[in-house]
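Newbie here. two chains, one complex. Structure please?
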Amino acid sequence: MAKDHPILTYSVKPPKGEAQVWLTAMGLAIGIVMVVGLLGLILKRGTDVFWPKRVVEIQLKEGGSLLGEIVLRQKNLKTGREEWLVHSGNKSKDDPGSAYRYVDTGEVTGTTEPAGVMKAKRMEYGDALFYPVNLTARDGASLRVSDAGFNEKLKALMKTGESERRQVEKLEKVEIGRINQKIQDLDNKIKVNPASAESLTAEKASLQAEYEKLAAQARGLHEALGKDILRCRLVGGEERDQAIGELIRIYEPNKLGFWSRLRTAISQFWDFLSEDPREANTEGGIFPAIFGTFVMTILMSAVVTPLGVIAAIYLREYARQGLLVQVVRISVNNLAGVPSIVFGVFGLGFFVYTIGSHVDEWFFSDALPTPTFGTGGILWASLTLALLTLPVVIVATEEALAAVPRGVREAALACGASKWQTIQRVVLPASAPGVLTGVILAMARGAGEVAPLMLVGVVKLAPALPLDTQAPFIHAERKFMHLGFHIFDVGFQSPDSLAAQPMVYATTLLLITLVVIMNLAAILLRNKLRKKYAAGTF
Amino acid sequence: MPALNPAYINVQDFNFWYGPKHAIKSVSMAIPECQVTAFIGPSGCGKSTLLRNLNRMNDLVDGVRHSGDITLNGTSLYDPSVEVISLRKRVGMVFQKSNPFAKSIYENVIFSLRVAGQNKKSELDEVVERSLAGAALWDEVKDRLHESAYGLSGGQMQRLCIARAIANRPQILLMDEPCAALDPIATLKIEDLIQDLKKEFTIVIVTHNMHQATRCADRTAFFYLGELVEYDTTGVIFNTPAQDRTEAYIRGLFS
């Protein structure tokens, strides 16, 4: 055949380059696998925290049994058998050990899912797993678990407890805090002007009396909270009294169907989003950390955007392009490679110790030696991160400016516009999408940064939010909580690391979600601008 | 009407360098008022450079220098008292590639007034209508003045740029190959427009299209390698040129 068709006798080489296609595809595949794997793990573990699990009673060979949720099943490399990580909760004042323990399946003779078991989230000592026995209310009512109306009464008592807890919180945080502030102000006045001490002492005494009254009120509420008692039987038969005022949420995990479990999960997730942390951050919500991260990132963007844009305009539009500008440009790019902790140290030395202490001297000398701005705070943290992310914005803006076509600039100049008018009215609007790309990158970098923040204002537990309803509303000097630092703190600084692990995943999930949401907002804005300035080059 | 000035723009022994490159060599010419003067010549002959010197657009390029002088109605463009911004307000320019701003049609037209600080709505409205009508675009866009200029066709965009250039009532209109990127119909429209505009403005047009020069221009200048070879009325240049090089060029022997 080949002889009849000489043209086909040439050996046909396969076209070159196919191998490279596979190589590039492999690069992408590795990237996708890594991203999907990491996000998938965080998503799974992060949402798992809120999903109510079945509680099993595990009968052990040695006798006795254990009540708990099986959190993890893994193979023990030493014994070769499967082992379970069981969350049994029930820590107490007398028994503060871990709420978790490993169980070797070789020791297990059987498991059951008892229907009557109840799970409770408590203000202190984490979760409790128990069989309810009876309850005694402060009004004298006493109901056994088998009595009609037990559950309703329990729910009603919890509701009272919740409102009393809120009252206590309001008393302690807001009202007593305000009086303390007034007393402190008086003390400062007396210190500045000792002559006025006599006239002010009376005022101080009346404040003191008011304080005592409020404190007594709070104590009374605390006592009342402990007066409704739920008697619980633990799995070993031991019975304990649990104050109903300390219960935050109860449910019977083995009786829940899919929808009620979903409802519980969503409600627990909402609590996590909206509440303050408890028990050294291992329980409760992370609202202050979300809020702190958000406010800090917004403040940082508000500082870094104008600064970066102005610097880039000078570098690209005004400065004579030469060796010096080139050196400056390279230096700015290299700033992006400086370890972030160095920025933290700089922020501490420059913003906190130098600028902050001078601000204190000039404006807050009354409060000295207690520093106001002379210590870490959200303002200094935002400024430090603004410096850290400045190169990103400068580089992106410079590129965006350079991409504005020459024709458009010449058109503006030919219309009699000055150089600044050209930049302001024509060049900057056309490069806005590119600038926003830089801001998006800066936000993503800044929101995830932890190391420098530890030096300039992040704390494990902040007493108040940086924005609130007390004048002057924006408290730029306050210390704040941050999701990234929260992950580090909960995951690596807490005494019960097993109890903290789920919180780490959930917090990570939220940090990523927050960054994604802020980025999406910026991307939407950018796309809108792009549409407006589309076809700027053709 | 006052008598027209036959030497409204006067180029006197003008030399221009881009760095080491001698782009314009000892050019002297007088451009009369309210006429269309065309610059023709092969690419790189210096015609665009000279045009861009008439509103000092070349100042923006690094490493340029010049000798000789250009006067506008008797005043030197390079006189230290001349402000380049006010000069550019008197000398409008239309570019080869249409370059509208990323703004509405309305804002594009009044850009030169906005930068001059003119913000009175009634006046701006009037300028928009007059300029767009002057650029033969009013009827096509009057219903969508506040839409983006990027929604226009290529020919409409170029006419919008002309409207923008005449909005501030300049005395001179410089056109740098205004039809190079346009189809024949759009080109015809702009050529008709040039005939209308010369009643009001002194027009200098650079073109590669010799038919365009014969159709529009009252006077034509032929440049070659930075020199002004021949400058006369369009009829003389195209029918009885004095120089062999001019004749060779217009017969298409080199380009």
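Moderator note: Chain B touches chain A at residues 55, 57, 60, 85-86, 88-89, 92-93, 95, 97, 99-102, 111-112, 114-116, 148, 150, 161, 164-165, 168 (CB under 8 Å). The domain at 9-250 of chain B is CATH 3.40.50.300 (Rossmann fold). Thread marked as resolved.
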